[in-house]
Structure formats: C-alpha cells, structure tokens
C-alpha cells in the first residue's frame, strides 16, 4: 500500500527525471513549457491515447503501459521521418499509488532516454486509467514522409515482423502468457532511425497501428492509387505456420510501411525490410498468393 | 439515436472544420501534423485533461465540455503571454453518437474561431468520457511570463472576478441551475489578449485554475518570495455578500494573477484588473482584512 499524493508532489517526485535537452528553455512546472524549435525545420505533432482494457490488457505492468503510450506516439513521428524531441503526458489514474507511479515513470524514462526525448509538461487527473501522450519533433522542410505521396510503380516495403503483437494478444486473451511474444505487444520499438533514413527519399509512409491491410489502405486512399500485395513475401519468423490474418489484420506492431522508388538502393537500417508489393494506378488492394489473386478482408482494429 | 461511427468517418465529418492557418502545412489526417513555428520565437506547449464527473458535472452539454477543454489550455498559454496557434484533441467517449459529436465539435469550433487556433491532430478512443487537449503557441524569446520571476515590491493583480465559477458549481451540486453563473463555470474566457499585453512587462504570472490562494502560493514558491494580500480589495460583483472562500479557494475561473512593477502604467485590456496585494521578501501569504491580519487556508482544488 502506498499513500495518495498531491499532484505537485507527484509530478516533482516521479516526472522530473528527464535529462535536460538544450532546446528545452522551461520544462515541467510552469503553466506551459518553453521550447526552441530548430530553425528551418517544421514542427511535427501527434497525440495518442491508451485506455485500460482497450489498448492494453487490464493487469499490464505500469512500466509497459508507459512504454507503449510513448512508443505509439514516437512511432507516429517516425512515420513522418521526424526527429523526436519533446513530449507531454496526460495521465488519468484511479489512485496515485507511489509504487505504481514509480514503475510507470521507470518505463517512460527507459524509452525516453533511448531516443533522447524529454518530458516537458502534462497533467495528472483522477479517473479511470488512461494515458494520453503528445509527441513533438521536427523535420527539415520538404522532407516529411506523408501518406498521400505514393507514386505508381513504387515498391511497397514493410519493416520488421507485423502480426507478432496480435499473436501475443490472442494468447493472453486465451489465458496464456503471450506465446513468448509479450514484449512485441507491450514494448513496441518505434522506428525512428528508419523513418529518418527514409526521409526525403521514400515517397509515402505510414505506421502500422491498426493492421497492415487497413493502414496500407489509408495510404493508398490518401495517395489516390491502388496496389498489388504479394502475400508470399510477407515477413514471418515464427516456427508455427504463417498466420496471414495476424499479419494483415493484427494491430499494435508499430512497424513502418512505405513506398520506395524501385531504382533507388535501400538505406542501411537497424531493422529488417521486406518488399511486399507494388503501387498501381487502379484503386484498391489486390492480394496475390501462389500466383493467384485471393480475397483478403481489409478490416483491422476498429476504434468504435 | 444516432449510429456509431468509424474513427475515420468521425474525424472527417466533425473535426475537419478549422479555417486553415497559413502556418499549418499538414493538418488532421496523416500520422502527425506539420507546422511552421514563427522564426525567432519560442514554442509554448501545455496539456490538460477534463474527466467527466470530476472537472465538469455529469450532464454538462457537449458543446460546453468542448469549450472548457480548449479554454483551460488556452488559459495556460495566456498565462505565459503566448499567442495561441494550434491544438490537438484526444477524445475518449463511451459511444460515438452523431448528435453529441456535432454539439461537441460546435463548441470547440466556437472558441477556436474566437482565437484563430486550429485543430491539427488528435485521437478518438472508446472509453469513459474524458477530453485531453494539447495547446501550442509561441512567444518572442525572452518575453514569456513565468511563475518564478516575481520581485519584491511588485504589485499583485488579478483579472476578472474569481469565485464566480465556484458559486455556480456549488449551486449545481445543490440541485440548482448555477445561480445565474453557469456560463462562468462552463465557458471560461481564456485571457489571451491580457497575457499578450503583459508579456515582456509583467514579472510573473499564473492562471487561476485551482483557486487564487493556492495558485498564488505556487507563484510565490517558484519565485522564492512571499506576499501580503488585501482581502478587502478582492474583486466581487455579485449582489450577495462577498464569499471569500469562493474567491480564495474556488477553482475553475481561469483568470490571470500577475505581478507588476508598481512604477509602470497598466496596459489597456479587455478585462477588469484589480490590485490585490504586494510581493514581499518574507515567505508565505499574509492576508489582511479591515487592517488586521487574518488566517486563510491556502488549500484549493486537490487533484488527488
């Protein structure tokens, strides 16, 4: 049992940890943060909420909740090719228990330190557990990766191994411990290094939060193009048979899907990249398997 | 009854309204927004959450919830002397009902248009009703109003009529309709014009969200000073007897409290300003009434 804490004490004790970035003029503790955006760059801003029981299973460790809440936002910055700089945390929780908060702050700090992003402000409120993070970064003008810039003839690539988070979640919901893939669900790795390597060179990009088929569909719609997808090329590293539904409809992997001019060499990156299809002029997503076209539902995670 | 909506349709239908600002390069609809901060200014960022039943009474109109969620954030920008530019909305709601969303978007748009701020991104999730907004603005370097800059000998001023929101809330919780002050609770006016008029000239500022005594106490602690407060000077415009507890401990007014070098003339503003005390070297807040020092609890709204 740990005692409840006043908001100010709570913030001071648990959320004053981040190593100071030189571009933070005033961080946590005033009415707002004062930040110095790099001259000549665009500001990149995004915001995502995780709700207990919906975006993570009840009983998820506090450190993992914090990690994931930051990771999904850094993933959005990665999908724009941005450099991550700062974030704000809005934390709603039923009670301010010291041990839970210490674990939460620890998870947050671990990922923040990995990418040198600094917590600069936020709010703590009492209510049903949920975490909203706003991430801020920057990108040189004209180099951001947008959804709407795919071109006919582009190769389509995906990073990592989409589907593994869905396998973990299915196993947990069935009473298991995550089938050895719990970390893929709880601690996704935002692909910031990859996003920055792609910027100014890849044509379009999106991060896979709601499922490869659905998120690729958003990219195609935004770019007013279609695509052929080679199901046999989809990456898979599990020993069990390939689970196409997990790969195509499973969310929560936070890999990047991007389109790339075929004549260019791929950049060196810290993550596996796999060519999975090609952008075509005709709208829609056409899936191929063993040389035949097959029907694949383009649904994924539904927010409502 | 209105049908539930998919997230994408929901965003497209209700949250694509804002008049495009020229400093928004890419708004709602991609992985993140692309914004152009003004050269030579600091970025100002803050984030506040409203939880149903805690920060607004259950049954509050959707338009009022939206207004207040944006207002409390714009108020934080005002307290820094910033110009408001953009905001992100994280909306968690039990069901995506079209009529509720339409009202919510309407209230949001009303206040956003008044201050020419643009919705540039966010997230909609399913869960217990809560609203988190991140507001972004800018201020010329060196001109931000901080809590820690009060100087001994400064006059202390407050804008408007703190305490009216608390009177409204007390009446509603007692079954009334807000004692004619419902709008002061539901639709606070962020003092952006005042904040900008003060910047570079006032020494320290804070917005009153948790009660005048408590928030002024934060300013004093941050500045490592104390103050004398003249209770007889506290502004009050109601016909009923002055309610000192409402003025000093009532939250939710979002007026500004600031310290000002006494030799300078006050700026012309759109809101009443009242001198209520003076900054002193000795720590602590001393309250005076009818020439005698009186004890006043410095508590206010407690988040936990």
What does it look like?
Two copies of one chain form a homodimer. With 304 residues, chain A is of the alpha+beta class. Helix content of chain A is 27%, strand content 28%. Chain A is built from eight helices and 13 strands. Chain A has helices at 7-14, 62-79, 98-114, 164-173, 182-186, 192-198, 212-223, 244-249; strands at residues 24-26, 33-35, 41-51, 83-93, 118-126, 130-140, 155-159, 204-207, 226-230, 256-260, 273-280, 284-289, 292-294. In chain A, helix 2 (62-79) packs parallel to helix 3 (98-114) and helix 2 (62-79) runs parallel beside helix 6. Chain A is globular. The mean pLDDT of chain A is 91. At the A-B interface, helix 1, strand 2, strand 3, helix 2 and strand 4 of A face helix 1, strand 2, strand 3, helix 2 and strand 4 of B. Strand 3 (41-51) of chain A pairs antiparallel with strand 2 (33-35) of chain B.
Overall strand count of chain A: 13
Structural class of chain A: alpha+beta
**CATH-level-2 architecture of the largest domain in chain A:** Alpha-Beta Complex
Gyration radius from CA atoms of chain A, angstroms: 20 Å
Instruction: Give the strand line-up of the largest sheet of chain A.
Output: 8-10-7-11-9-12-13
Helix tally of chain A?
Answer: 8
**Residues in helices of chain A, as a percent range:** 25-40%
CATH class identity of the largest domain in chain A:
Alpha Beta
Spell out the CATH superfamily of the largest domain in chain A: PurM-like C-terminal domain
**Assembly category:** homodimer
Total individual domains of chain A: 2
Proportion of strand residues of chain A: 25-35%
CATH topology of the largest domain in chain A: Phosphoribosyl-aminoimidazole Synthetase, Chain A, domain 2
Q: Sum up the overall morphology of chain A in one term.
A: globular
State the separation between the terminal residues of chain A, measured CA to CA: 36 Å
Elements of chain A, N to C (H/E)? HEEEHEHEEEHHHEHEHEEEE
Low-confidence stretches of chain A are none
* Sheet of most strands of chain A: 7 strands, mixed
Mean pLDDT, all residues of chain A = 91
